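Example 3.2
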Amino acid sequence: MVQNGMPGGILPIFPGYFGAMATSRRPLSKAGGAAGALLGADPLAGAGRRPPRVSFEFFPPKTEEMEEKLWQTVKRVESLGPRFVSVTYGAGGSTRARTHATVLRIRSDTTLEPAAHLTCIGAPRDAIDAVARLYWDSGVRHVVALRGDPPAGEGRYTPHPDGYAYAADLVAGLKRIGPFEISVAAYPETHPEAKSPETDLDNLKRKIEAGADRAITQFFFEVDSYLRFVDRAHAKGIDVPIVPGILPVTNFAQVKKFAALCGAAIPDWMAPMFEGLDADPDTRRLVAASIAAEQCRRLQAYGIEDFHFYTLNRADLIVAICHMIGVRGPVPADAVKAPAG
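Structure, written as tokens:
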């Protein structure tokens, strides 16, 4: 972990970083006092604190080499005991077959609980329902229900004439097929196609009222953005868990493009963190792990105990970040060394 530090503290990596990530609220511990231990000396928030619950997102592989890398990642994070792991669709449903194959292999070849992404894009209801029934019959009980994005170059989203128009419709359809556990998307900084933050929140509420069990947020970097969003959601009567989506940043230029597409803000403090590291991937990974772990710790200070990680199919960063926030798998027997002497 990158820190300019003495034992027991996370200090700013450059001037202004620590203050820039601070929130306007005062975090409280479970006993009602300030959560100073979490934000100061104790990186695991004190003795007796339970590890947070985590989930991971993968994307389906395009080549044999990428498939091998994915399964190495899957096996490495399996020991962390995530609540579930999800597998994405590409834009326009372009990875549909690979998504199905990956989900079913996770179900059959691992102890992990898979969550299959399903979208409304490019398919009639009957076809989507058939996939959902296949999942159910194969023991897959969790679906991430999304509207989905049209293929590049096709402009704004247009519903399939015989399909589910929007995610709320898809959620309702899935619930008619079986008692799936359903996660949906939420946007702390507002979906880029929404008319306003309020209409975006109304759309989230429709998805919850249709039967969704939780919302997983788009990635964000400012903790206050998430906290304000959760407050607004609760005021709207949305009472399901809203799980923060955490994206470790290893390629800053790429993340800027992602953020522009999905409406996520890049804070001013982030660019200097990656200056001069274009040819230094090892240091970039250390910085990425530090930023993501600190973001999680700050959220923990406000009582957040669930995190969904966008892994980009990389195990090293995720294992490191989880280790720093207290999520750890068993130590392999061959890694345990006898005490010296």
